[in-house]
Amino acid sequence: MLVILGLLLGLAVGSFLNVVIHRLPRGESIVYPPSRCPACGARLGPAELVPVVSYLVQKGRCRHCGARISPRYPLVELLTGVLFAAAAYLRPVLWPDLVFLWAFLAFLVALAFIDADTYLLPDSLTYGGLALGLLAGGLGMNGGLFRALLGALLAAGLMVLVGGYGNLVLRRLKDGKPSWPVGFHQVYLAALAGAFLGPAWGTMLGLLNWLLNALTRRGWNLPEPVSLLLLPPVLVLHPAGPLAAGQGALVAAGALALLGGLYWAFLPEPEEDDDEPVALGFGDVKLSGMLGAWSGFPAFLVGLFVAVLAGAVLGVLFRRKRLPFGPYLALGGVVAVFFGDALWKVYLASVGW
User: Which of 82, 184, 254, 351 would give a disulfide with 156, using CB separation of 3.0 to 4.6 Å?
Assistant: First the structure.
């Protein structure tokens, strides 16, 4: 019975997600005006808004003007319904765990399709999903608040550093364009200091650099090649060992990345240099933080492996040079939340840990 409820609720939520996916990137309200045909603007009646069924009855065309309706609309509805039903089957706890899990899945569906369309991951969804994950942790779900927060910071830190080294290779070891007052330079400084001094001191040093830039209205930045190239030797030579130093680097980098991203979410972002190569979009970093909060860091690593594998395979099949990574991260996030911990244990057992 609960699975059927999940399916029906998911179909209805998927219908709303179609509105979110269409309007949110355009800066339009997701509640007003009511649903209309994108071609002729005719307001849709209740009979035209029944998930999946309306599309089939109308044979994929608008009843008013005959314009073709994208099959993606029923796909989003059906996908959301199936995910909600699967969540009800795998996690049959109605309140509040399952409700939070349904919300998480809805966020992922919206993010995946928006990124596929626009190569953008809206801050309102990534930070909204992150906040929801931390709230769930605070209510005792997802292993508790500490696990959720640590997972978010480690996941975001890992992805921002992966992107940083990728950018460094693409730029042939040249420094990147700094953002004032906070940007990647402060994130990588925090990572280096976090590896050497610990995550708290690394985060504090990054914040102090941010504050110094804001107060002096100048950019006091340690060049990215310096901080990134010094990080590996620090990890290897640190007396506490590379794992402890690595955790310090990831936590500090993740904290600065998510705080800096939140700062820019409320302000006009600096103009991007189209000529500057980018290995990984910063939206993927924020989405990774959201996923880490929901799954925990070990399970996130499983999801990241799934995302990279799926992206590589589909990229080769479709022969596309540029692929939005968000849909693959969303897929990995679903795997991580439902099966990540179990798969991680299997991996550790296979390597004798």
Answer: 254
Joined tokens for residue 242:
């590379």
DSSP state of 210: H
Token pair in block for residue 150: 């640590």
> What digits encode the pLDDT tens for the residues 30-55?
888 787 777 676 787 777 778 998 88
Specify whether the CB–CB gap between 201 and 255 falls below 8 A: no
Name the residue ranges covered by the structural domains of the chain. Answer: 2-92, 172-276
CA distance 303 to 279: 19
DSSP state string for 58-71? TTTB-TTT-PBPPT
C-beta of residue 168 within 8 angstroms of C-beta of residue 298 = no
Go through the chain and tell me how many residues it has.
Answer: 353
CA–chain centroid gap for 318, Å, is 23
DSSP category for residue 50: S
Q: Which amino acid is at 326?
A: G
Residue-averaged pLDDT of the chain: 92
Q: Cite the DSSP H helix spans in the chain.
A: 2-23, 53-57, 72-90, 99-118, 123-138, 145-170, 184-197, 199-216, 224-237, 242-265, 282-295, 297-318, 326-335, 341-350
